[in-house]
Design a protein that fits this description.
mainly alpha, 10 helices, about 260 residues
């Protein structure tokens, strides 16, 4: 079996396992949509330049969906598999190590695409989200999403080494994900947050993912309300690219295949 086929088979296996877990499917795919419905029903005012709060919030939820599919899912799932000895058993098989990660990447890509479609469909159908109407906007949507999900996936793999056990993984990962959401312009208008909080959030990928997606779904004039006075797409690309490289290095140097008790 050649290398591409191995990767595709592993990806198919990971996707099948994901779809068999009803709880995981519901939380990953439907929870962000429910959040859009709840917040969209409560906050229906404008935040300036004719932009509804729902439009602003939806862009953040799409970015959050990408982060959940990449960072949060892998940072919890991998420690659980390590704790159950799945990774140790894989080391004893002829399967190359990269195939395991290829399967995870394909699973994350599948979830991210499906979740984004669900969020956009709900937002368009019930809250009047205006879809991009130019090729440039769609291109921006694609590269921001690809860079964002790549950075989040690599961060999830790297962060998976911090949890000592599979049981403790959700307790370690979930607070980090929630803090990033509250400080990165998902639930609140980013510029309404304290300056120090904005500066801290600017270190991490989610803030830049949200900002890049706002340039796609919000009017160009709204860019003047961003901290830098524009959407700063070049800076978005640079920061997300740096995170991809840094997280990849962390993955290569810190990833653990076994627990301490396995030796």
């Amino acid at each position: 079996m050649n290398a591409p086929t191995l990767g595709l088979r592993q990806g198919e296996l990971e996707i099948r396992q994901f779809l068999r877990s009803r709880e995981q499917v519901v939380f990953t795919l439907l929870f962000p949509a429910v959040m859009i419905v709840v917040f969209g029903s409560i906050f229906d005012g404008t935040i300036g330049d004719g932009v509804q709060f729902t439009q602003y919030f939806v862009t953040g939820m799409i970015a959050t969906g990408l982060m959940t599919a990449g960072f949060q899912a892998l940072a919890i799932q991998i420690p659980m598999e390590r704790d159950r000895g799945v990774l140790k058993r894989l080391l004893g098989t002829p399967m190359p190590k990269w195939v395991y990660f290829a399967g995870k990447v394909l699973m994350v890509a599948f979830i991210a695409v499906l979740e984004t479609i669900v969020l956009i469909a709900v937002s368009t159908a019930f809250f009047g989200l205006t879809l991009p109407d130019t090729g440039t906007q769609w291109l921006t949507f694609c590269w921001v999403s690809v860079l964002g999900i790549t950075a989040c996936t690599l961060c999830g793999v790297a962060f998976s080494s911090l949890a000592r056990t599979g049981r403790s993984a959700p307790a370690v990962v979930t607070p980090v994900a929630l803090v990033l959401q509250f400080t990165s312009g998902v639930f609140f208008v980013f510029t309404s947050l304290p300056t120090w909080m904005q500066n801290v959030a600017a270190i991490f990928p989610l803030k830049w993912m949200c900002q890049g997606l706002r340039s796609v779904f919000l009017p160009a004039v709204f860019g003047a309300r961003e901290p830098g006075g524009s959407y700063e797409l070049a800076k978005v690309a640079i920061v997300l690219g740096v995170w991809c490289v840094a997280a990849l290095l962390l993955c290569l140097t810190t990833f653990k295949w076994t627990t301490k008790r396995d030796g």
